[in-house]
Amino acid sequence: MRIVIVEDEKPNATRLKNLVQDICPDAVVEAMLDTVTGSVAWFREHSHPDVVLMDIRLADGLSFDIFQQVSLECPVIFTTAYDEYAIRAFKVNSIDYLLKPIEKEDLRQALDKIRKEPVQAGPTDMVQQLLEFFKQKEVTYRTRFMLPFRDGYRTVLAEDVDFVFYNANVTHLVLKDKSHVVVTQTMDELEEQLNPVQFFRANRQHIIGVHSIDRILHSFNGKLQIRLKRDPEREVLVSKEKVPLFKQWLDK
């Protein structure tokens, strides 16, 4: 089985590759891609694999954008942080969905389904239905966090979060009063839960609030450097691929 992995979080991509090789020792992972642009280029230049494992959110946009530029003639298994109702709604035909963090047995069943039920057509039509579903789906974003505090709990409002950073396997919220609190959510989970009007995933280690930005500077290789009001010494880089999305986010 020839497999391509499209995932912009390197640890997730590596774990997924290891799971595939555990489940199918004879499988060949032909490519590990992390952007819409890179994926489109690869699929245009290579024969399509037996299956694609594809994250929905990539560094430079949604993976749905890939299907607007190239017609994939193979089944797709999406890996997603969206809720189970979306997954149930679209577990049909040439597309499957796995909820992160990916469990080995779930991946095994998805791959077995593809091997037992040959795909008659590409997934483009189903992807369009999925995209329309997410557009229509009412989204409720996180408004507060309940955190352990002394002998009880405290509440932190999402609007009081200045920015988020990830370090040494721990996710930290930096509040507008410059205090730090630790949360159990991963960066991927917070990216989904926080209102995208107010927060932007600048890179793997940082989610910044719109009011946290002090200055925006040009950096090397087309990147941008963000200087934060409450932590001016911290280096927050926006990759070249994400710069258009970042500008679009700010220019509203």
Structural features, described:
The structure is a single chain. This protein has helices at 10-23, 36-45, 64-69, 84-89, 104-116, 124-136, 187-193, 243-250, and strands at 2-6, 28-33, 51-55, 57-58, 61-62, 76-80, 95-99, 144-149, 152-157, 161-167, 170-175, 180-183, 199-203, 206-209, 213-218, 224-228, 236-238. A hairpin with a 5-residue loop joins strand 15 and strand 16 (224-228). It is an alpha/beta fold and 252 residues long. Strands 2-1-3-6-7 form a five-stranded parallel beta sheet, sandwiched between helices. Strands 12-11-10-14-13 form a five-stranded antiparallel beta sheet, with helices on one face.
Please write out the topology.
Layout: E1 2-6, H1 10-23, E2 28-33, H2 36-45, E3 51-55, E4 57-58, E5 61-62, H3 64-69, E6 76-80, H4 84-89, E7 95-99, H5 104-116, H6 124-136, E8 144-149, E9 152-157, E10 161-167, E11 170-175, E12 180-183, H7 187-193, E13 199-203, E14 206-209, E15 213-218, E16 224-228, E17 236-238, H8 243-250
Parallel strand pairs: 1-2, 1-3, 3-6, 6-7
Antiparallel strand pairs: 4-5, 8-9, 10-11, 10-14, 11-12, 13-14, 15-16, 16-17
